[in-house]
Input
Amino acid sequence: MYQKIHCVNHVGKNLLIVGYHPDKAWEFKVVTQEGKTVREVSEFDDAKVAEYHGKKWIEDNLLRD
Output
């Protein structure tokens, strides 16, 4: 469970969640519209950096035409 939540954003039909774990630093998690977690990456030093990389991952991997 996160100690802090920076954001919960829709990117396309997916959720991008950025939160803080004391032992993992900042993390992004991508959840599809079906509720499946498809990507989880931690150890970012800053919430904005985690948010940027999460959004980019969604755009590069889930929003392709």
Observations:
- The mean pLDDT is 95.
- The first strand starts at residue 4 and ends at 11.
